[in-house]
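User:
I study polymers; will you set down one protein's sequence and backbone structure tokens?

Assistant:
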Amino acid sequence: MAFQIVITGYGIYATKSGRLAFISKTEQHPDGVLYLGYLLTISKGKTELEWHAWTVDGRCNSYGHELDIVEKV
């Protein structure tokens, strides 16, 4: 599957599932740059950060395809 979005840096992005990903860090890996960020999750009345990693083409490395990036907000 070819992605139409390339993560361009820090910012807010929408995922396939409609959640917002807040990209706030980068890490250099042998396969390229990973973009690290979080999703807000509300559970039992508490808001928590759920951290994930994405590749430059928007694929989520730490979860399923529903968290793949589809567009910058």
Notes: The first strand starts at residue 11 and ends at 15. The mean pLDDT is 90.
